[in-house]
Design brief:
This protein is of the alpha/beta class and 1025 residues long. Helices cover 41% and strands 14% of the residues. It folds into five domains: 160 residues; 140 residues, no CATH class; 286 residues, Vaccinia Virus protein VP39 (Rossmann fold), CATH 3.40.50.150; 173 residues, no CATH class; 94 residues, no CATH class. α1 packs across α4, α7 packs parallel to α18 and α12 runs antiparallel to α18. The radius of gyration is 33 Å and the shape is globular. InterPro entries: DNA_methylase_N6_adenine_CS, MethylTrfase_TaqI-like_dom, N4_N6_ade-DNA_methylase, SAM-dependent_MTases_sf, TaqI_C.
Length: 1025
C-alpha cells in the first residue's frame, strides 16, 4: 500500500520549491516514479531548456519546461506542441530562477477530440507571494495513492484524478461556504443598527475587505516594515499586539476614510510625512470612485463593531477565510482558468448571498455562456460596422487570426466606438465579459498589426469611458459591478500606486429599466439647442468620470445641472415613476446617435404574479402589455427601443415566451422587426444550476427579408456549454424565420417543418371539430376543503342523504393514464355558484371548518371574486359536460396520455376534458394518442423538466383531425376501443399501437419517409425521457 501525504507536508515542500531536483522530489512524494526524457528536438521560443519528462506513471507524464518568464501565452504554445503526442500529462513551468511555478492541467472539451478541439487550461501558481493552502489541498488530490493499485498505471484514471484536482468550481464553492459562515457570524456581532442596516453595513464592509485583498496582491498597500504583501493580515496582527477591541474603529475606519478615500495632496494629519495616521495604516493609494466614501450608517454614534466580528465562534476571518485561499487579480476566461478565487467571486457572492438565491429572479450565467454571448454580439456588430467577410470575422473573434481582415484599422475604430448596454446588469457579469472581449480583440490587433499602441491600463480605461453602460434596480448590485470594473482597471497599473479610480456614477446607474417612457429624443424645438444641451451633459459626465478630491463635488453638481436641463427640455408635463431610469435623459448622448449598438443581458426571471410594477408597465408598454407575462418579456421590448437601427440584441432568458400565450405579442414584434441570427434552446437543462428553461436569443434590429433564415440549436446535453460555437456550426440547422408562427415558435429542421405543415393542412383543428367543447377541470381555490376521500363522502351522506347531490366522483391529472383511468376514490364537493348551502347542512358543517381559508378576501383566503365562501372558486358554466361521455387528460406528460371516460367523472384543474358525439370519441382518442399527435403537440407545447410538455387546451385544440374515409375511421376507433379495454397494458398493446399508428399515417396521407420522420422523432423523445 503506497502511503499518502498530507496537505501540510505538501505545503512545506511547495514553500521550499527552488530547483528541478526539488520538483522531482515533490512528485516522488506524490508517488510518481522518476523519469528523464527530453522532448522536442528543435528549440522552443521563450524556453531556456527543452521540455522534459521528469516523472511518469504508465502513459501519464509530468512534463517540465523552464521559461525566460512565466507567460500564459507561451505556456499555451508549448503545450499545444506537446499535447498531440502526450495527451495525458501535467505540464509544469518555472521562471529562470526556479522561484515561481505554474502547474497546468489541460482538460479537453467534451466530444471534440476529432474536430474543433477546445482545450481548457487550468493553472495552479506556486511562488513566495502566493498563499499555498489552496494549492496544497488541490495537489494532495493528485497523489497516486488515492487510486486503487490496479489503476495507478492507468493514464485515464490518473488524468481523471488531475481533472478533479484542478476543478476551480470546487474551490469556488468551498470558498463561498466559508464566506457565508464568516459573513453571517460578523453580521450577528455588529451592534447599533437594525436588521436591514446591519446586513447592508456588513455587505459593504466585506466588499471593501475583499477589494483590498485583491488589490494587495499588487503591493499597493504597505505598513511600515511589513514583510510580504498580506496587508490586512499585518494590519490585524499589529492591532492585536496592542491588546485592543476596536479594530474597525482604530484601523479600518482610518484606512477607508483617511487613506483610500482621501486625495494624497490633502495630506490628512501627516499621512505622507510619517504622521499618526500613516503609522496606523501605512502607505495606501487614494482610490476615488466612491467605494470607500462614508455612509450615514458609518456615522452613527450607536454603531459598534467589536473584534469578535472578525475572530469569533466561526474562527478567524483573516486566517480561516481571507488568507486560507489563494486570490488572483485576473478574472479567468472560459478556457484559461486560475485555480484560485478571482474577482468574479464578488459577483457570485452577490447573486448567492446578498439577494438570496434567485429570489430577485437573478441567475448567475456560466462564464462559457456569457463569453459566447459577448463574442456573438460583437461579431454581429462588426458585420454591420466593417466591410469584412464572415469568415474573416469568425477567424478574428474565435481564433485570434487577423490574416483575413482587409482593414484592421477600421475594425479597431469600430471596437473603440461600440456602445454596449446591459439593462439588467446585476453584479456586472456581462460588462466584465465585454471588457475582456474588447480588450482581447484590441490586444490581438496590437500584437499582429502594431496598432492601438497604448498600455493595457489605458485600453481598459477607454473601454470603461466609451463602450460600457449598465443599469440595475438593485443599488448593491450596481456597487458590485462598479467594484469589479475598478478592480479590473486597478490591477493593470504597473507603478507603485494606481491613479485614482474613475467615477462610474453616470456609467453604471441605479434605476428601474422598464418603467420610464421609451427612450426617444424628439427633434422638437431648436435643433442646435438640443445638440448643445446634450454636448454639455456629455462633457460634464466625462469630466466627472476622472474628477477627484474637491473638484469631484463641483463636477457632480455641474453634471446634475446639465442633466436637469435635458430633463426640463424633454419631459415637460410628463410624469416619470420615482424609481424609473429615464434612458433618454441619463444617456442622452447615446440616443442622440439613435441608440446602442449592442444590448446584452440575462434579464430577471420574475413570474407575473410577483411583479409589483404592473401599473407602470401597463402605462409604459400600452398595447404590448400582457397581464400574465413574466418580467423578462418587457426587457425584450425595452431592448428593441434601446437599440439603434441594425443594432444587436443578445439575451439569455426563459424560453417560455416561445410558446406561451403571454408571449404572442412579443413573438409578433420580433418576427416583424428583427433578423434572428441564432436561437439556442437549452430546454430544461440546469444551465444556472436550477431549472429555468433558458435560451440564448441573438438578433439584429432590422425587418427580415422573406427568405431570411437563422441558425437554430436545441441543446440536450450540458457538455455543449463548453463548445457552443462548434455545436452551433456542427449540430445547428438553418431555419426560415417565416416558419415561426404567432401561435408558437418551434425549432425544427426543414423536413420536420414541411411535415408539420402538411399535417396541419390535412385536417380540421380539433377545437373547430368539436365546436370548442374543450374545457378545463374544476378550480376550487382550496382543494383541501372541497376534495374528499371515500370515508368522508360516506359520512356526509350518512349525516344527510341530500349531500349526495353535490358530491361527484373526481379524477385528478395523476389518475389519468394513457388509455386508462385509475379512480383513486376521491370526490369533489361541487357547490357551484348560486347553491343554497342551508339545504345541505352536512356539507356546510364540513366546509365551515375551513372558512378562514375559503373567504374570497385575497389575503388569508382565496382570491377576490363574486362568490360565497362555501362556493367553488370558478363559475363552471359548462358543468353539465362532465356528466357526458368524454375524453380526459392531465396537464403534464412525456407522451400523449388521453383516456375515454364513460362514467361521468368530474376532473379538477389543470386536467382537461373534451366532449364530442359518443360515436366520434374512439376515433378522436386514437388520433390523440398516436405518434402524429405526439409529434405535433411536442412541437407546439411548452416544455418542462425531464422531457415533460404541457398538454394545454390551446395546443391540443390545434391537432388537425383528418377527414378520413368512414371505413378507416372505424378501424382507428376499433383499435382505440380495444386499447381502452386493455387499459394500455398487456402483450397485445405494442402491436395494437403500431397498428394504430399505421392507420393514422394513412388517415393523414403520409408517405413511408414522412412516417419515418415521425417515428424517429418520437423514438428520440422516448430515449431522452
Amino acid at each position: 500500500m503506497i502511503a499518502s501525504i498530507s496537505p501540510n507536508s505538501i505545503q512545506a515542500q511547495l514553500e521550499s520549491l527552488s530547483s528541478l531536483d526539488k520538483l522531482r522530489d515533490f512528485f516522488v512524494t506524490l508517488n510518481y516514479p522518476c523519469a528523464d526524457e527530453t522532448l522536442l528536438s528543435a528549440s522552443v521560443a521563450g524556453a531556456l531548456d527543452q521540455p522534459r519528462i521528469i516523472a511518469k506513471s504508465g502513459d501519464f507524464k509530468i512534463i517540465y519546461t523552464r521559461l525566460e518568464r512565466l507567460s500564459r501565452t507561451l505556456e499555451r504554445d508549448i503545450i499545444s506542441k506537446l499535447l498531440p503526442d502526450h495527451p495525458y500529462a501535467l505540464f509544469v513551468f518555472s521562471d529562470p530562477t526556479y522561484t515561481a511555478w505554474h502547474l497546468v492541467n489541460v482538460k479537453l472539451s467534451y466530444r471534440e477530440q476529432d474536430a474543433h478541439l477546445r482545450r481548457i487550461f487550468r493553472r495552479i501558481t506556486v511562488s513566495p507571494e502566493e498563499r499555498l493552502r489552496t494549492a496544497s489541498e488541490r495537489l494532495a488530490m493528485i497523489d497516486l495513492s488515492r487510486l486503487p493499485s490496479s489503476e495507478q498505471d492507468s493514464a485515464l484514471a490518473i488524468q481523471d484524478l488531475h481533472d478533479k484536482a484542478f476543478d476551480v468550481e470546487a474551490v469556488t464553492q468551498e470558498f463561498f461556504r466559508a464566506y457565508r459562515r464568516h459573513f453571517e457570524g460578523a453580521e450577528q456581532q455588529i451592534c447599533g443598527l437594525n436588521g436591514d442596516q446591519r446586513r447592508t453595513f456588513t455587505q459593504r464592509l466585506f466588499n471593501r475587505l475583499m477589494f483590498i485583498l485583491f488589490l494587495e496582491r499588487k503591493g499597493f498597500l504597505k505598513l511600515p516594515d511589513q514583510q510580504g504583501r498580506d496587508y490586512l493580515r499585518a494590519l490585524w496582527d499589529r492591532h492585536k499586539a496592542e491588546d485592543r477591541d476596536d479594530f474597525y474603529t482604530a484601523r479600518l475606519k482610518p484606512l477607508f476614510a483617511a487613506g483610500l478615500n482621501t486625495p494624497n495632496e490633502v495630506n490628512i494629519v501627516g499621512i505622507n510625512s510619517k504622521g499618526a495616521v500613516q503609522l496606523l495604516i501605512g502607505n495606501v493609494p487614494y482610490l476615488n470612485g466612491g467605494l470607500f466614501e462614508e455612509h450615514a450608517d458609518e456615522q452613527s454614534q450607536a454603531l459598534r463593531v467589536p473584534d469578535s466580528a472578525f475572530v469569533g465562534s466561526n474562527g478567524n476571518v483573516f486566517q480561516d477565510l481571507f488568507y486560507r485561499y489563494n486570490f488572483t487579480v485576473d478574472e479567468s476566461t472560459p478556457f484559461d482558468v486560475e485555480v484560485a478565487v478571482d474577482p468574479e467571486m464578488l459577483g457570485k457572492i452577490f447573486e448567492e448571498l446578498v439577494t438570496g438565491r434567485h429570489e430577485s429572479g437573478s441567475y448567475y450565467t456560466p462564464k462559457t455562456v456569457s463569453s459566447f454571448m459577448c463574442r456573438a454580439a460583437l461579431r454581429s456588430y462588426l458585420q454591420r460596422a466593417c466591410q469584412e467577410s464572415d469568415a474573416a470575422l469568425d477567424a478574428f473573434i474565435h481564433e485570434g487570426d487577423t490574416s483575413m481582415l482587409r482593414t484592421p484599422e477600421s475594425v479597431l475604430d469600430a471596437l473603440r466606438s461600440v456602445r454596449i448596454c446591459d439593462p439588467a446588469c446585476g453584479s456586472g457579469a456581462y460588462l466584465l465579459g465585454m471588457m475582456q472581449e474588447l480588450l482581447r480583440l484590441r490586444r490581438i490587433l496590437f500584437d499582429k498589426h502594431q496598432i492601438d499602441s497604448i498600455s493595457v491600463y489605458n485600453r481598459k480605461l477607454q473601454i470603461i469611458q466609451s463602450n460600457l453602460y449598465g443599469v440595475d434596480s438593485d443599488e448593491f448590485a450596481v456597487n458590485i459591478a462598479r467594484l469589479r470594473l475598478w478592480l479590473s482597471l486597478a490591477v493593470e497599473y504597473t507603478g507603485d500606486a494606481p491613479p485614482p479610480l474613475p467615477n462610474l456614477d453616470y456609467k453604471i446607474e441605479i434605476g428601474d429599466s422598464l418603467t420610464a417612457p421609451a427612450p426617444i429624443l424628439p427633434p422638437n424645438g431648436n435643433l442646435h439647442f438640443r445638440e448643445r444641451l446634450i454636448e454639455d451633459f456629455n462633457a460634464a459626465k466625462a469630466a466627472f468620470l476622472v474628477a477627484h478630491g474637491n473638484e469631484k463635488i463641483a463636477a457632480r453638481e455641474k453634471t446634475d445641472r446639465a442633466r436637469q436641463d435635458i430633463r426640463d427640455w424633454l419631459r415637460t408635463n410628463v410624469e416619470i415613476p420615482e424609481d424609473a431610469f429615464d434612458w433618454a435623459v441619463e444617456f442622452a448622448e447615446v440616443f442622440k446617435e439613435e441608440g446602442f449598438d449592442i444590448v446584452i443581458a440575462n434579464p430577471p426571471y420574475i413570474r407575473h404574479e410577483l411583479i409589483a410594477t404592473k401599473g407602470a408597465l401597463r402605462s409604459t408598454f400600452g398595447v404590448r402589455f400582457t397581464g400574465s407575462a413574466d418580467l423578462y418579456v418587457y426587457f425584450y421590448f425595452r431592448a428593441l427601443e434601446l437599440l439603434k437601427p441594425n443594432g444587436t440584441l443578445c439575451f439569455i432568458s426563459s424560453n417560455k415566451w416561445l410558446r406561451a400565450a403571454y408571449g404572442e405579442k412579443l413573438r409578433a414584434e420580433l418576427a416583424q422587426n428583427v433578423q434572428i441570427q441564432h436561437l439556442i434552446d437549452f430546454g430544461d437543462l440546469p444551465v444556472f444550476g436550477a431549472t429555468a428553461y433558458p435560451m440564448i436569443f441573438t438578433a439584429r434590429k432590422a425587418p427580415p427579408a422573406p427568405a431570411h433564415a437563422f441558425r437554430a440549436l436545441p441543446v440536450r446535453d450540458l457538455e455543449v456549454l463548453d463548445r457552443l460555437p462548434a455545436a452551433l456550426r456542427a449540430q445547428g440547422f438553418d431555419q426560415p424565420q417565416a416558419s415561426l408562427s404567432k401561435e408558437g415558435w418551434t425549432l425544427a429542421e426543414p423536413g420536420i417543418l414541411a411535415l408539420l405543415e402538411k399535417l396541419r393542412q390535412g385536417g380540421t383543428p380539433l377545437g373547430d371539430y368539436v365546436k370548442g367543447a374543450i374545457y378545463r377541470g374544476v378550480v376550487t381555490g382550496y382543494n383541501e376543503a372541497f376534495v374528499i376521500d371515500r370515508a368522508t363522502r360516506d359520512r356526509l351522506i350518512a349525516e344527510d342523504p341530500k349531500s349526495e347531490e353535490v358530491i361527484k366522483p373526481l379524477l385528478r391529472g395523476r389518475d389519468i393514464k394513457r388509455w386508462q383511468i385509475n379512480f383513486a376514490e376521491k370526490y369533489l364537493i361541487f357547490t357551484r355558484r348560486g347553491i343554497k348551502i342551508d339545504e345541505y347542512p352536512a356539507i356546510e358543517r364540513h366546509l365551515l371548518q375551513y372558512k378562514a381559508r375559503l373567504v374570497p378576501d385575497g389575503k388569508g383566503g382565496r382570491k377576490v371574486g363574486s362568490y360565497m365562501w362555501y362556493e367553488i372558486q370558478n363559475t363552471i358554466a359548462y358543468y353539465a359536460e362532465f356528466e357526458k361521455p368524454k375524453i380526459v387528460w392531465g396537464n403534464l406528460a412525456t407522451k400523449p396520455q388521453f383516456a375515454l371516460d364513460t362514467q361521468r367523472f368530474y376532473v379538477n384543474s389543470p386536467a382537461k376534458i373534451l366532449v364530442a358525439h359518443p360515436d366520434d370519441l374512439p376515433y378522436l382518442v386514437g388520433i390523440l394518442n398516436s405518434n402524429v399527435s405526439h409529434c405535433l403537440i411536442a412541437h407546439m407545447a411548452a416544455e418542462r423538466q425531464d422531457g415533460f410538455v404541457e398538454y394545454m387546451s390551446i395546443y391540443v385544440a390545434q391537432v388537425p383531425i383528418p377527414n378520413a374515409p368512414q371505413a378507416l375511421r372505424a378501424l382507428i376507433g376499433a383499435v382505440a376501443r380495444r386499447l381502452t379495454e386493455l387499459g394500455g397494458r398487456g402483450s397485445e398493446v405494442t402491436d395494437l399501437e403500431a397498428q394504430l399508428n399505421d392507420l393514422v399515417y394513412q388517415a393523414y396521407g403520409l408517405s413511408a419517409s414522412e412516417s419515418g420522420l415521425i417515428e424517429a422523432y418520437v423514438n428520440g423523445k422516448a430515449a431522452e425521457a
